[in-house]
Amino acid sequence: MAAETPFPGSERPVIVWLRDDLRLSDNPALTAAANCGRRIICVFVHDEESEGLRPLGGAARWWLHGALQEVDNALRARGGRLCVYRGVASAVMPQLAADSKAAAVYWNRRYGAGERRVDEAVKTALKTQGIEAKSFNGHLLYEPWSIKTKSGTPFRVFSAFWRAAHEAGEASQPLDVPSRLNLFHGPCRQASTPRVELADLALEPSSPDWAGGLRSNWRPGEAGALAQLEFFLEEHLNEYADLRDFPGRLATSRLSPYLRFGNISPRQLWHAAEAAANAATNPGVHRNLEKFRSELGWREFSYHLLYYNPEISSQNLQTRFDGMPWRTDADAIRAWQLGKTGYPIVDAGMRELWTTGWMHNRVRMVVASFLVKHLLIDWRQGEAWFWDTLVDADPANNAASWQWVAGSGADAAPYFRVFNPVLQGEKFDPDGRYVKRWLPELDGVSSSVVHRPWQRGSKVEVYPERIVEHDFARQRALDAFKGLG
DNA sequence: TGACGTTTATG
DNA sequence: ATAAACGTC
Q1: Which nucleotides of C are covered by protein (CB under 7 A)?
Q2: How far, in Å, is the CA of A448 from the C1' of nucleotide C6?
Q3: pLDDT tens readout for residues A379-424
Q4: Which of A16, A320, A342, A366 sits a CA distance of 20 to 30 A from A470?
Q5: How far is CA A335 from the centre of its chain?
Q6: Any strand C atom closer than 7 Å to A475 CB
Q7: Averaged over A271-290, what is the pLDDT?
Q8: Active-site residue flag, A326
Q9: Per residue in A399-418, is it b (16+ CB within 10 Å) or e — as a string?
Q10: Does the CB of A301 sit below 7 A from strand B?
Q11: What is the pLDDT of residues A202-219, one digit of tens each?
């Protein structure tokens, strides 16, 4: 067969390398490519081989598939397509750039250690080939190196970090989808590495197909993100501060998986929330806006911690926790994973997670506290389960939040702060609406005992026995903490 | 972005 | 007698 030009056309194209920025709006790399006037090739490389890249969990893989599909659809609607490859990115990208005779490769930055190593290797290889490599900020309001203490060290306390972030200036305005995209629409051939179909990546579960609950609860991709944002701003922003902690109210934004894969950007949320607040007339608008923004702030802080603590998902930030006498208890872990601990608020959360790939934020704190403190099981076990089951499993947020709950984090909850799952349930799910949604065992149980079904008179016979009793577990956790010195 | 036992204030 | 307030984990 005669050799054919992999990417025909006389003019040298620009490659946009998409990663955790699966959107067309507010995408600085894409906008820069559009502005440079060259033809644009949009590329995704599925890299499961490079050292230091953590393989995605099952739920996240499902989301990634849907988000990539949506990017491809959006590009096709504009006369282009998404070119998908598989392999070691630091080899594939330079080869692809050479084969396509690209003038430049643009991407939005990542902040994990392994990801930065890969991106650095790509940049070095491209420059050796005389190809321009340029990176942008599409993932954060404030990149880690732009926020520092007066003495030049990274922040370790959220409130101080967030105050300094405000002083660093307002997040910049989001970019529109480029009005003119000169997209490449050819067959995406490459001489060295064959292009693959999205389905070839096998990101979706096949048999058994466990993704039904995910499919019926989520619509991955940019259009789904914008729809969810509009719904949240319309229905829930104006009661956000008061109701976000009540899992029965569905008052949170539910935007986390979209942020994780960059189906929407924090800059878009920052400014869209402000616009919605300005248009509202009810009292407390400012308080709700600031509360929502501070949740974006926690995400920023997590990325700050990840950048300065590359091993955050495997190493205690406070090394004294290395001496914690974690228990080995496979039965307890299994009961926790399955939502059969005997505590309704814990069990409801874990079943919501298993069914939908997501869990309400308040309940995440309760189930995490239960695993780490009541069961004395290493937070890394919980982090790993969340990594595999959450559609929003995020390299920064997941690890930083688990360490926060465990008490091993930088600015962590004190270890002696042990959530009482009964009181948390009664306080934040007073009518039992949330636990009943996920626990059919509790049908018809009165709200007065729905969070303590073992109590005499609750008439709950089928509910799992408590795997550990609260007072005992609390004391055991406090003793273990005291032993850390 | 807790819980809990104890003390103190108020009637 | 009950509820704030307080100290400790």
Answers
A1: 9
A2: 30
A3: 999 999 999 999 999 999 999 999 999 999 988 888 899 999 999 9
A4: A320
A5: 25
A6: no
A7: 93
A8: yes
A9: bbbbbbbbbbbbbbbebeeb
A10: no
A11: 999 988 999 999 999 999
Residue A443 falls within a domain, yes or no?
Answer: yes
Active-site entry in A274, A298, A420, A454: A298
> Is A336 marked active-site?
no
DSSP state of A411: T
pLDDT digits (tens, 9 = 90+) for A349-380: 999 999 999 999 999 999 999 999 999 999 99
The answer to whether residue A398 is domain-embedded is: yes
pLDDT in tens, A324-334: 999 999 999 99
pLDDT of residue A10: 59
Is the distance between the Cβ of A145 and the closest atom of strand C smaller than 7 Å? Answer: no
Both tokens assigned to A411: 């600015």
**A244 CA to B11 C1', in Å?**
38
A240 is in an annotated binding site: yes
CATH of the domain at A352: 1.10.579.10
How far apart are the C-alpha atoms of A290 and A298, rounded to whole Å? 12
In tens, the pLDDT along A42-83 reads 999 999 999 999 999 999 999 999 999 999 999 999 999 999
One of A137, A326, A426, A454 is an active-site residue; which one? A326
DSSP state of A273: H
Catalytic status, residue A295: yes
Residue A9 pLDDT: 59
Side-chain half-sphere exposure of A447, counting CA atoms within 13 A: 10
Give the span between the Cα atoms of A436 and A460, in whole angstroms.
13
- For residues A77 and A226, the answer to whether their CB atoms sit within 8 Å is no
pTM (2 decimals)? 0.96
As a rounded value in angstroms, the CA-to-C1' distance for A10 and C5 is: 79
Residue A464 lies in a domain: yes
- Smallest CA–C1' separation from A475, nucleotide: C9
- Protein-to-nucleotide distance from the CA of A372 to the C1' of B6, whole angstroms: 28
- Residue A234 inside a domain? The answer is no
pLDDT at A179: 95
* Residues of A 240-299 whose CB lies less than 7 Å from any atom of strand B: 245, 295, 298
Name the domain count of chain A.
1
